[in-house]
Write a structure and sequence with these properties.
By secondary structure, this protein is an alpha/beta fold. It has ten helices and 14 strands. The chain has a domain of 185 residues: Rossmann fold (3-Layer(aba) Sandwich). The structure holds N,N-dimethyl-L-histidine. The site of N,N-dimethyl-L-histidine (AVI) has 12 residues, from helix 9 and strand 12.
């Protein structure tokens, strides 16, 4: 097969500056709604500003954070079978949702390139820094790779891809990012992905599996306190971007795993009664002593749950790849 050699703009930014004020207004509205809600809540979507993304990189290197290592093993051990599946039907667009540093995807990219597969790599991420770094690292590490990075949220990027890229598509959704959606949202999101695909297109999704609750809890409560800093950064971000006066030391990171629901929930708990003023919202918010803000859910799945969720979204299961210990699964689905 021949490699496609079109010259592409290396980076497309769908979040350009003119959206800056809208993004800030959305953030301020989200904070007003979440801190007025009983019980208080904020979305983990807002974890990933510059400092938050850097902290997440550190989390992925922690000894306690097993998902990255387990998925790395799944992809390394099965790269040949996965690449054979992806490249079985000629040219395709490989769309990597939430690509970040693409550490695991690069294993597949190298394998695909060795097989001289015909494809174009389209990493998508909300962080422009991450996409710029990824573009330059791809040029050094995988010369000749046909790629174009897209900066944007999942929805805008899927729309852009539908309008600008025709032909077979394979979506990668690695790193158990699906776990950060509540169950109903994950169904809605997978249906949205499906609506941007044609029958015969594929989805390769990485999902963290249920396991010893202590192992899970440790992964979100690491000894070095990096996950605590990651969670607390949300309050720093509100201070920086919305003119908040959170005393961040007045809050603690508190993660707890529910083994019946298979969900890790993280909270920020106020150590004392306090009021916080946030300029961009024009309001103060009251916290009772030990009142908590729910900031993140990380769902862990069983294999039957994964199959049911994805089949309910218009896909059929093709193959499940797992690491030796059964910690993590990467699953290929076909759009029907
Ligand atoms: C991005 N996401 C899949 C991570 C997770 O495991 O839920 C985010 C994270 N939160 C705390 N540690 C890592």
């Amino acid at each position: 097969m021949e490699l496609k050699t079109t010259t592409l703009d290396p980076l497309i930014n769908l979040t350009r500056k003119e959206n800056g004020n809208k993004d800030l207004t959305d953030f301020a509205n989200h904070v007003t709604a979440g801190l007025s809600h009983t019980p208080k809540k904020l979305s983990s979507r807002y974890f990933y500003d510059g400092p938050g993304s850097a902290l997440f990189q550190q989390i992925m290197e922690l000894p306690e954070y097993y998902p990255t290592r387990c998925e790395y093993e799944v992809i390394t051990e099965n790269k040949s079978a996965i690449a054979a599946h992806l490249a079985s039907e000629g040219f395709f667009h490989l769309i990597d949702l939430g690509a970040g540093d693409a550490l695991k995807t690069k294993i597949l990219l190298k394998e695909l390139q060795e097989r001289r597969a015909a494809f174009e790599y389209l990493p998508v991420d909300i962080s422009e820094d991450a996409m710029q770094q990824l573009s330059s690292s791809l040029e050094k590490e995988i010369p000749g790779l046909n790629h174009q990075a897209v900066v944007g949220d999942y929805n805008d990027s899927l729309e852009w891809l539908q309008q600008n890229k025709s032909g077979r598509k394979v979506i990668l959704f690695l790193g158990s990012n699906i776990g950060n959606f509540e169950h109903e949202e994950s169904l809605g999101f997978l249906r949205k992905i499906r609506s941007h695909l044609e029958p015969g297109d594929s989805l390769l999704m990485g999902i963290d599996l249920r396991k010893d609750p202590d192992t899970i809890l440790r992964a979100y409560n690491d000894f070095a306190g990096v996950t605590a800093a990651f969670n607390l950064n949300l309050l720093h971000r509100i201070n920086r971007e919305l003119g908040g006066n959170f005393d961040v030391n007045g809050f603690i990171h508190y993660p707890i795993y529910n083994p019946q629901e298979g969900v890790m929930r993280s909270y920020l708990v106020s150590k004392q009664e306090q009021d916080v003023y946030i300029q961009a919202t024009g309001r103060s918010f009251h916290f009772n002593a030990w009142e908590a803000i729910h900031t993140e859910s990380s769902y862990k799945y069983t294999l039957p749950q994964i199959q049911a969720m994805v089949e309910a979204s218009g896909f059929t299961l093709e193959t499940i790849f797992q690491d030796k210990e059964g910690c993590f699964a990467d699953v290929i689905f076909h759009a029907v």
